[in-house]
Amino acid sequence: MKESQARKRSSLYRSRKIIAAAMELFCDQGIEQTSVEEVAERAGVGAATIYRYYETKSGLAVEAGVAYWKKIEQEYLNVDDAAGYADMTGKEQLQYILDALVRIFEHETAFLKYLQEFDVFLFQNRVDKEKLTEYEACIMNLKPRVTDALEKGLNDGTLSFDWTPEEVCYSLAHTSFGLMKRLAWNGTMLNLDRKVSLLLQVQIALRLMLDGLSVHREKLEDRRGQDV
């Protein structure tokens, strides 16, 4: 039994080293440009060991993405640990989440580049959708934070929109992460891209989205007057 537990711990430690090495290289060099042999060398294991754990490089890329999404959730989007979050209005909660996206753009540029390349990698390698189940689940874990804030904003009158919270959530996610990935990947390719800082572009875009969903003071006062 002790030998079995020790073997499990050793296997878990080796797996974490492989994932950490893969993510570093994928973020630094790109997925296509990184070989399994390079990952093995960085992790201090043989290439055969990686194939025994993950079968293919695409499997390794997916698992690396899963691990990093969990890191993002814990470090930036863990609203349960945010002081006073439960007492915020729906708009304030949504603002908190969008502010977290700004911090992700500031500090996780390499990961955003990885996400951009990962989309291309999946398309070019025709990765089976069934192999993306855990990866997709990690992303979907973030969805209730946004939909709950949107629902609360509708109920407390600080947000107003004509769609379902789910529809708005998907639109916000695709728009914000689409912009962040693109800017992180090649946001300074042309001279015109340098006219406005990339961070400010993200901040402006997210602010415009929030303002577009917000109830203006006059409208809110009219609504309160109708409820009296």
What does this structure look like?
The protein is mainly α. It has two domains: 1-55, Arc Repressor Mutant, subunit A (Orthogonal Bundle); 62-227, Tetracycline Repressor, domain 2 (Orthogonal Bundle). Helix content is 75%, strand content 0%. Helix 1 packs across helix 2 (36-43), helix 5 (90-107) runs antiparallel to helix 10 (198-213) and helix 9 (165-186) runs antiparallel to helix 10 (198-213). The chain is globular and about 60 Å long.
The CATH topology assignment of the largest domain is: Tetracycline Repressor, domain 2
Report the CATH C-level class of the largest domain.
Answer: Mainly Alpha
Rg, rounded, reads 21 Å
Q: What's the architecture of the largest domain, going by CATH?
A: Orthogonal Bundle
Q: What is the count of helical runs?
A: 11
**Biggest β-sheet, characterized?**
none
Helix content: over 70%
Shape: globular
Strand elements, count: 0
User: How much strand content do the residues show?
Assistant: under 5%
Outline the low-pLDDT stretches.
Answer: none
Helix/strand-derived class? Answer: mainly alpha
Order of helix and strand elements from N to C terminus = HHHHHHHHHHH
Straight-line distance between termini: 69 Å
Number of domains: 2
> What is the averaged pLDDT score?
88
